[in-house]
Each structure stands twice: as C-alpha cells, then as structure tokens.
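Form 7-S
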Amino acid sequence: MSHAAAQVDDATLQVFDHHLGAFALGLDELLKDYDDASTIITPDETYRGQMEIRAFFKAFLDGADPGFWPAFRITSKSTAGDVAYLAWEAKPWVTLATDTLVIRNGKIAVQTFTSFAA
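Output:
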C-alpha cells in the first residue's frame, strides 16, 4: 500500500471511530462528522445537510428503547480507502443493520443505512 493510500485509510478509520464513539456523547458530537454537503440514504428517505441529518439522528436516538444500547454489538467493521463498512445488531430490536460511509476531507460525505427488525 502506498503512503498516500495508507493516509486515506487512517483518515477514514479516524472519522469512523469517532462516529461510533459519538453516539454515547450525544447529538452535537455525532453531527461533527457531517457537514451541509453530507447525505444519508435509507430505504425510506434521503437526508441532506446538517439540519436533515440532525433530525434523522434525533429521531433515532429519541426512539431507541433503553435496552437498545446495552444490546448493541458490532458484528463486522472494515475500511478500504475512503469507504467504511459496519454491520451491527441490537437484538431483539435490530437483528441486522448495515452502514456504509464514504469519508472525504474528514467528514462523512455519503452514508447508507439499512436495518432489519425481527
């Protein structure tokens, strides 16, 4: 791997790890990984920019059962260049969920999210 490619991987992992840790720190910390050019794509809707992304995460966090976070478990996590992939579960609420993030210039440019319930 070239030095430049390794730097991209490191930058991707840094944002990815921050994103995962930010859930415990709240909405404002979570939104530091996005900017007004960011987009989150879900099966139901596409969220563009910080205002829409804030609303998406606020609804997600507010709607989570108190037992959700203790049940949260990462089942797969990897990066390749500017792409990060995560598979996770929080049984019995979520049996499988996937997130794919494209990270550019220290921000999540595009994220896809799909979850499957029991």
